[in-house]
Write a structure and sequence with these properties.
154 residues; alpha+beta; three-stranded antiparallel sheet; two-stranded antiparallel sheet; 6 helices; 5 strands; 67% helix; 14% strand; globular
Length: 154
């Protein structure tokens, strides 16, 4: 158990380091993780509003508004009125934002390729087993976070 836990902790720590690194996704400008993840959500859910983005990203509406302002200043997103609701403001990607979105997707396709290959070569029952283990691990961490007074839902 301790060997597996150690390996898991190392993988998580390395993944967190990778996820925190700002990088250029093909637009000639470095984007921080919070920025590219907002671009990713907008790219996957076009016409989202601040509330929907906050829920998808697991952050506050205020934090989303700050990120959107930075993305707007960088020419990656555009805000527009919802044609069905005059009060609602929706967000879409500009041409430059779409290029960043595509660069981010390409980054993950390249990065995830090895793991995807490994998983695809596993027998179906082993994939199901891994899903169950991950689900139980997540539930265990959620219980611990709840005990500490915080629950993260993604």
């Amino acid at each position: 158990f301790y060997e597996l836990r150690g390996a898991f902790i190392r993988i998580v720590a390395k993944y967190q380091t990778l996820e925190k690194m700002p990088r250029d996704y093909g637009i000639g400008e470095v984007l921080h993780p919070s920025e590219i993840h907002a671009v990713e959500m907008i790219g996957k859910k076009p016409g989202a509003n601040v509330t929907r983005l906050a829920e998808s990203l697991g952050i506050t509406k205020g934090a989303v508004s700050q990120v959107l302002k930075r993305l707007e200043n960088k020419g990656l997103v555009v805000k527009y009125k919802d044609p069905n609701d005059e009060k609602a403001v929706l967000v879409g990607l500009t041409k430059r934002g779409k290029k960043a979105f595509e660069g981010h997707e390409a980054f993950h396709a390249r990065y995830d390729q090895t793991i995807m290959r490994l998983v695809s070569e596993l027998p179906h029952d082993k994939v199901i087993f891994l899903k169950e283990i991950f689900s139980q691990m997540e539930a265990s961490v959620d219980r611990y976070l709840k005990e500490l007074g915080s629950v993260l839902t993604l």
